[in-house]
Write a structure and sequence with these properties.
Layout (H helix, E strand, L loop, with lengths): L1 E5 L3 H13 L4 E6 L2 H10 L3 E4 L5 H7 L6 E4 L4 H13 L4 E5 L21 E3 L1 H14 L3 E7 L4 E7 L11 H4 L8 E7 L5 E2 L12 E7 H10 L10 E5 L3 H11 L4 E6 L2 H10 L4 E4 L7 H5 L6 E4 L4 H13 L5 E5 L5 H4 L7 E4 H13 L4 E6 L6 E6 L22 E8 L2 E3 L12 E6 L4 H6 L4
Parallel strand pairs: 1-2, 1-4, 2-3, 4-5, 5-6, 12-13, 12-15, 13-14, 15-16, 16-17
Antiparallel strand pairs: 7-8, 8-11, 9-10, 9-11, 18-19, 19-22, 20-21, 20-22
Length: about 450
């Protein structure tokens, strides 16, 4: 597949890397105005880079737009991304993806839709981040939550406490528990940072971070058994940063009767936020100054979220908020490379990368096979993929047992959705055409997984 990516930032870089990993025959060209950004990509990825404006028709022709099947425009400039998609539509590019952060371009009030600009998938990373933060605030102690099929299937990760009755037991024994049969443990991340796809003899140990997938009811039961609180109401939340993410999150919390305060150090931004938000208290000041968080009422706050866009400040703010009595603290991370390190900081409950969330939205369009959705995970280098079993695919009409030795070792079928029913597969379960199969996979196994679903 011929793909052109415009923008060599974190979203463009990671999308290019995923495309090259997904299929050796993928031909990827990356365009960026920055010479340094192009050099960085060339040093780490085996692809062609072109320096120049991404919406330049001559440069796009040089990149091979006449033969391209996919164009992904993810620069920091909405206008360039939109114009690039318009040009790509004139050349008959099958799939066009644009990163657009300003809500006005494709709003109902403006009377324009993404299709009017030739855009097949519009990504607003700020909105996606706000949704992720909202979800993490509402399931305390969870480090990661991914939903499929409108929430019927959930994947959740949490840290195992010493009092957890699951710890110390091998998987084969846990499988004998009734409710465990309705979910699968897809991965275990040990305290030393290693990640395994658990087999029968593997144990869950105190301090491990476990990933489990199953029906909403089974996941709820698992969290309750593991001492993860589910019924704590979000009464008060403080948000540091009145950018788009902070405002989107505050608006979502307002709808659920949560008392919200936003702290913003820039006076103009603080004033702008106060005109948009109806029930949120906007405070102007430096949240890192001694005593400021205490004066804002941080002690005992249900949630503290720092989304200023400065990684060091957001992490420090969360650690400080935790020390001052905040129950749950969440940080925005610009550099995805920090995520594995942040997972080891006890004072930080979870971190969200706007770039990896955007990459996940893009990936569902560029995978092979009958792919419905793709969710890259923050805490481990893995993905959860939802695929449809086609009539003529290798996986159709096969039992789970018959796939042993053929299906990749570093991948696991976590759930099957058949019509409206969620099935956690056992050995004699037969995958039927039309089933939506949710697979947890390490990166190196993804191409092999996809081959099972190709018609």
């Amino acid at each position: 597949m011929k793909a052109i990516i415009i923008g060599a930032g974190e979203v463009g870089f990671h999308t290019a890397a995923k495309l090259l990993t997904a299929e050796k025959n993928n031909d990827v060209v990356l365009i960026d105005e920055s010479k340094e950004a192009c050099q960085r990509v060339q040093e780490q990825l085996d692809l062609l880079t072109l320096q120049g404006p991404g919406a330049s028709p001559p440069l796009l022709k040089e990149a091979g737009i006449e033969d391209a099947e996919l164009l992904i425009a993810v620069t920091n400039c909405d206008e360039i991304n939109i114009l690039a998609c318009l040009i790509a539509s004139r050349y008959g590019v099958a799939t066009k993806v644009a990163r657009v952060s300003a809500p006005d371009y494709c709003s109902e009030e403006g009377g324009m839709s993404p299709a009017d600009f030739g855009i097949d998938l519009l990504i607003n990373p700020e909105q996606l981040c706000a949704q992720e933060f909202f979800q993490l605030l509402n399931i305390p102690e969870a480090r990661e939550i991914v939903e499929f099929e409108g929430g019927k299937v959930q994947l959740v990760s949490f840290q195992v406490k010493a009092t957890n009755p699951l710890q110390g037991k091998p998987m084969i024994r846990l499988g004998e528990e009734k409710f465990i049969s309705d979910l699968r443990f897809t991965a275990i991340k040990r305290k030393n940072g290693t990640t395994i796809v658990p087999k029968g003899p593997d144990y869950i140990l105190a301090g491990d971070q476990v990933f489990a997938i199953g029906s909403r009811e089974a996941i709820t039961h698992l969290l309750e058994l593991s001492g993860v609180s589910l019924d704590r109401k979000l009464n008060r939340v403080i948000i540091a940063g009145a950018g788009r993410i902070g405002i989107y999150l505050a608006q979502a919390l307002e709808k659920h009767d949560t008392q919200v305060k936003i702290i913003e150090s820039n006076r103009e931004q603080a004033e702008a936020a106060s005109t948009v938000l109806k029930r949120t208290t906007v405070l102007h000041g430096d949240y890192l100054q001694p005593g400021f968080l205490e004066d804002a009422g941080i002690e005992g706050i249900d949630g503290f979220v720092s989304v200023t866009g400065d990684d060091e400040n957001d992490i420090m703010a969360c650690v400080t908020a935790k020390q001052r009595g905040a129950v749950r603290v969440l940080a925005l991370v610009q550099n995805p490379r920090y995520l594995p390190i942040l997972a080891t900081i006890p004072a930080l409950d979870a971190a969200v990368s706007r770039h990896l969330i955007a990459v996940g939205s893009i990936l569902r369009l560029v995978r092979r096979g009958q792919i419905v959705s793709v969710a890259p995970l923050r805490e481990v280098d893995a993905e959860v993929i939802e695929l449809v079993a086609g009539v003529r695919s290798k996986i159709a009409h096969k039992t789970i047992t018959s796939l042993r030795g053929k299906f990749p070792d570093d991948a696991l079928i976590g759930a099957i959705v058949r019509r409206d029913r969620v099935i956690v597969p056992t050995g004699d379960c037969v995958i039927q055409p039309g089933d939506r199969v949710i697979v947890f996979s390490m990166p190196e196994a993804i191409p092999s997984v996809e081959k099972f679903f190709v018609e």
